[in-house]
Structures are given as C-alpha cells and as structure tokens.
C-alpha cells in the first residue's frame, strides 16, 4: 500500500526516508517525476510493507514489496527470470 505525503518546509529526503522506514533511494524511485519541493505531493510506503531495492547482475534495478507468506527462494528465482528478460 502507498500513501500520499505533502512535503513541508524543513523536510529532507533523508528525514522522509527515516520517517517511512525506507532508504532515500526507494523514495526517489517511487517518485521519479518529483522535484521534492515544498508543497509537492509524493508517494510514500505504508508501514505494513518492506521494500527492497537492488540491482541485478544484468544492471536492472528492481523494487520488490515483500508480502506476508512470501518464500525467499521463489522471490529470488522469479527476479532472476525477470532480469533475464
């Protein structure tokens, strides 16, 4: 799940990332068209999800939301196959 946050005076990419429990890179990836200016709306993750950002050996960047019940070996296999495409 995602939410919308309106950037306030004093917000920084690092402070927002810390508030939502993700890295600044994840926020940038979720909001690629945002300049992160005061008053602009950005997409933020809810606290019910865990985001993982990584670069595959094929240099494709992937964001994956780990959901309850996911099996790590299946996730790894699926992302490996997607990276080959």
What's the shape? Answer: elongated
Instruction: Name the helix and strand elements from N-terminus to C-terminus, one letter apiece.
Output: EHHEEEH
Radius of gyration over C-alpha positions, nearest whole angstrom: 15 Å
Helix content: 25-40%
Structural class by sheet pairing and helices = alpha+beta
Spatial order of the strands forming the largest sheet: 1-2
Strand content: 25-35%
> Can you count the beta strands?
4
Q: Mean of the pLDDT scores?
A: 77
What this model shows, in words?
By secondary structure, the protein is of the alpha+beta class. Helix content is 33%, strand content 26%. It has helices at 13-20, 24-30, 72-84; strands spanning 2-6, 41-45, 50-55, 61-66. The strands form 2 sheets. The chain has a two-stranded antiparallel ribbon with strand order 1-2. The chain has a two-stranded antiparallel sheet with strand order 3-4. Helix 1 (13-20) crosses helix 2. The longest helix has 13 residues, at 72-84.
List keywords for this structure.
single chain, 85 residues, alpha+beta, two-stranded antiparallel ribbon, 3 helices, 33% helix, 26% strand, elongated
